[in-house]
Design a protein that fits this description.
Layout lengths: L11 H11 L9 E3 L9 H16 L4 E5 L9 H14 L7 E3 L4 H13 L3 E4 L3 H7 L17 H12 L9 E4 L14 E5 L14 E3 L1 H11 L4 E5 L6 H10 L7 E5 L3 E2 L6 H9 L14 H7 L3 H11 L7 E2 L1 H15 L1 E3 L1 E2 L2 E6 L8 E6 L9 E6 L2 E5 L19 E4 L4 E9 L5 E8 L17 E2 L1 E3 L4 E8 L26 E9 L11 E4 L3 E5 L8 E8 L3 H10 L1
Parallel strand pairs: 1-2, 2-3, 8-9, 10-11, 12-25, 14-20, 18-21, 23-27
Antiparallel strand pairs: 4-5, 5-6, 6-7, 13-24, 14-17, 15-16, 17-22, 18-19, 19-20, 23-24, 25-26, 26-27
Helix pairs in contact: 2-11, 7-8, 11-12
Bound molecules: adenosine-5'-triphosphate and magnesium ion (MG).
């Protein structure tokens, strides 16, 4: 983003941009664009494209346009436009005055289509969609020319105008480029340029248009109209590049942007296409686009991802020409790294069990000093109340511990973080034989967590004071899918069968230190020994809700080490 953010070795796109500048191409200008279709929410794959386009622009002090690619009224909505804009801003990018819509160009695009008809480079075809597909041929066989290919310019102009006026039904006819039905590039076999869509109201142009430009026609011309210099897109458009260039060449467009393709981001343990994400939402597998298990920007944000972590992730994965899959553990690693340096530490007990310290004065309360962030000396300290009755984590106690369990057990002494050594003297059970309370003693000589006689303990536990703790609901999120590639194999259409049934666990009666009583939504904390947690958008004082963004255990470090071996 900033000038100090230099790249040791430039990726192939940045290299190309730098070379073009050096050669004086485009009059020394760089203009990029991010062109989302407003038919869904942005996901982490889009973040890669956003970081690339806005990143390159800002490295050259150049503009990056935000252009909504709104050429299909059936699926596009204003609510998506707003959500997309919000997500880009949140990621930390600014399109300034350069906000555009492909629909702004509908009049111009129509004029260009008429121009192509007049030059004999486009015709109205009356074959059905199925017939057009059959006539297209295959990779090994050439296509067949449509019987309507020979229509005169006058007839084509008349038919196209009548298409525009709504005189035909959807599928009756399309406008096609007249290129070459035998071309080795299937995309060049008379591709469709305009189609009829009558049912839908366009989110911006309403009912004005009954015909809409196809992506291949609208995209190159929109790029050209806006003076884009480098049009970056994902690899699946590489096949379309001959058409991108052909259309601009025919129309003698004032500016001919260079399309450059890069590998899309794939991430393990999730799906990344808007269609699949929409299916997850519509079938109720998740609770909306911003469900914290979704790979959407709004889902990641709600989960506790920071924009810094996402930008850092995008920078570190780089851009390449070959597709691959990035390990989800690496994204999680980037978040941990960021929050480790910034998140305030607090104590929270998720599955509480009561501890009564028998020899602690009944009504005494001590305010113990706790460090806010050991990674950040400027973060200071806070006071946390300590009293006779506490909660600790149920998992931190075992009545009959195996050898390697070093935490609390009958007769054993442990440290309470920032407080004292305590020793478990007695276990209280209910009628069902379940442990409901631990009776302990404390050593007043260990205040602050160290014994004056130098004796050691093997575990340090987090705790909260029962009378002072605030209640909270905590949602433990895990990966949404049980397998690395939910779309692999024959069953890919039923990828929802691979959803992790334990991807969300709700703990309703957690106890949290009082400093979080008025935690504001979106703030992230490290719950000591547990992980990073973010106050949910629906969290409020009196009804606290925290989402686990990521646990403390870093699988990426492990993966990295085995790869090194
Ligand atoms: P999806 O395939 O998820 O439905 P899309 O490509 O249809 O996404 P668009 O709104 O058309 O979504 O995408 C806007 C821009 O983001 C395009 O330039 C597209 O190439 C890029 N993009 C989409 N998905 C990814 C991805 N996984 N990695 C990198 N860039 C992506
Ligand atoms: Mg697309």
């Amino acid at each position: 983003m900033s000038p100090e953010n230099t790249y040791e070795s430039l990726d192939f796109i940045r290299t190309k941009v730098a070379e073009d500048l050096k050669e004086g191409k485009n009059d020394g200008r760089v203009v990029t664009r991010f062109p989302p279709e407003p038919n869904g929410f942005l996901h982490i794959g889009h973040a890669k494209s956003i970081c690339l386009n806005f990143g390159i622009a800002s490295e050259h002090n150049a503009p990056c346009h935000l252009r909504f690619d709104d050429t299909n009224p059936c699926k596009e909505e204003d609510k998506y436009v707003e959500a997309i804009a919000e997500d880009i801003k949140w990621l930390g990018f600014d399109w300034k005055n350069n906000l555009f819509y492909a629909s702004d160009y509908f009049d111009k695009l129509y004029q260009h289509a008429v121009e192509m008809i007049k030059k004999g480079q486009a015709y109205v075809d009356s074959l059905s969609f199925d017939e057009i597909r059959q006539y297209r041929g295959t990779l090994t066989e050439p296509g067949t020319e449509s019987p309507y290919r020979g229509r005169s310019v006058e007839e084509n102009l008349d038919l196209f105008e009548r298409m525009k006026n709504g005189e035909f039904e959807e599928g009756d006819c399309v406008l096609r480029a007249k290129i070459d039905m035998a071309s080795a590039h299937i995309v060049m076999r008379d591709p469709a340029l305009y189609r009829i869509i009558k049912r839908s109201q366009h989110h911006r142009t309403g009912g004005k248009w009954r015909i809409y430009p196809m992506y291949d026609f609208a995209h190159c011309l929109s790029d050209s109209i806006e003076g884009i210099t480098h049009s970056l897109c994902t690899l699946e458009f590489a096949n379309h590049r001959p058409l991108y260039d052909w259309i601009l060449d025919q129309l003698e467009a004032p500016c001919h942007p260079q399309q450059i393709e890069f590998a899309r981001l794939n991430l393990s343990y999730t799906v990344m296409s808007k269609r699949k994400l929409l299916q997850l939402v519509e079938e109720g597998h998740v609770q909306g686009w911003d469900d914290p298990r979704m790979p959407t920007i709004c889902g990641l944000r709600r989960r506790g991802y920071t924009s810094e972590a996402i930008r850092n992730f995008c920078e570190r994965i780089g851009v390449a020409k070959v597709e691959g899959t990035i390990d989800m553990a690496f994204l999680e690693h980037c978040l941990r790294e960021d929050l480790n340096s910034r998140a305030q530490r607090v104590m929270a007990v998720l599955k509480p069990i009561k501890v009564v310290i028998e020899n602690y004065p009944d009504s005494q309360v001590e305010e113990l000093e706790c460090i806010n962030n050991p990674e950040d000396p400027d973060a200071g300290t806070r006071k946390v109340p300590f009293s006779k009755t506490l909660y600790i984590e149920r998992d931190d106690f075992m009545e009959d511990p195996p050898k390697k369990f070093f935490r609390l057990a009958p007769g054993r002494e442990v440290r309470l973080r920032y407080a004292y050594f305590i020793k478990c003297e007695e276990v209280v059970k209910n009628g069902l034989g379940e442990v409901v309370e631990l009776r302990c003693t404390y050593d007043p000589e260990t205040r602050g967590g160290n014994a004056s006689d130098g004796r050691k303990v093997k575990a340090t536990l987090h705790w909260v004071s029962a009378d002072h703790a605030v209640n909270a609901e905590v949602r433990l999120y895990d990966r949404l899918f049980t397998v690395e590639n939910p779309m692999a194999g024959k069953e890919k259409e039923d990828f929802t069968a691979r959803i992790n049934p334990r991807s969300m666990e709700i703990l309703a009666s957690c106890k949290i230190e009082p400093s979080l009583a008025d935690a504001s939504p979106g703030t992230s904390y490290q719950f000591e020994r547990l992980g990073y947690f973010c106050a949910d958008k629906n969290s409020s004082p009196g009804n606290l809700i925290f989402n686990r963004a990521v646990s403390l255990r870093d699988q990426w470090v492990k993966i990295g080490n085995t790869q090194k071996k």
